[in-house]
Amino acid sequence: GYSGCIFRLCAYKCYKMKIYFAGSFSGLTPNQLKNIGIKNKLYSYANDQQQISLWGNKGLMLDSGAFTAFTKGIDIDIDNLTLYIKNLNPDYAIQLDVIGNEEKTWSNYLKQKQDIPNILPVIHYNATDKHIKRVLNVADYVLLGGLVPYAKDKPKLMKWLDYLYGKHKLVAKKTHLLGITTQTILERYPVYSSDSSSALSIVRYPSSSKINIMKQKTKHYTELYEVGIKPIIELEHYITNLWERRG
Question: Which of 40, 42, 101, 161 is least surrounded by Cβ atoms within 10 Å, i.e. has the fewest?
Fold first, then answer.
């Protein structure tokens, strides 16, 4: 009963849903990625500065690299990051969040927002109501993070998202799901954008019989990447049309 019906109570402008391609497409330049159909790319400040310079600022969502910092013990200087964002002027930039520390995440957001008014805030999985409300009070476009560990546990993931979209009425905001492009999730919630590296599965898991067959038929990774990219682009169109039909 929750899916879909509650969202029709909120009349909001329809947008073209965007899926940002994340991850490293080894062997291909940013221009080659654009040539095979990728229009929106998520790059990390912590890992991808060379690729970012080649891609440019259009169609770019810049991630701070907070997850890399968290997992590898790397310090990201917030002032250097903020200056980098100001000089680059990407379509969108994600705040420097601190995994496991919503107070520091919030203070970082306020600090960066002084110089970058449209910096995107992050609400992590299991955030407190206090943090959710203060983010929603000041931002029209919010990112939902910490979801990837629950991608295969849909009941748990949906319980959290139901709570956000229901009690906190995220239908009135633009939302981005970090690392989630699961079709059933995108069908259930009116997501403005999301990202994932699922298009890379075609070359990440070569043991698959399907991929082995593809490798026999192709001579270059470009063709393999195109096979991985095509269903993501089709999903983007399908989800856009689905929510337009729902009104």
Answer: 101
Alpha-carbon 1 to chain mean position:
27
Helix (H) or strand (E) holding 161, with range, is helix 154-166
- Running DSSP on this structure, what letter comes out for residue 152? T
- Please provide the DSSP assignment of 4-55 as one string: TGGGGGS-------EEEE-S--TT--HHHHHHTT---EEEETTT-HHHHHHH
Q: Per-residue pLDDT tens for 149-169?
A: 999 999 999 999 999 999 999
Token pair in block for residue 111? 């600090």
Distance CA 8, CA 102 (A): 31
Gap between the Cα atoms of 136 and 140, Å rounded: 7
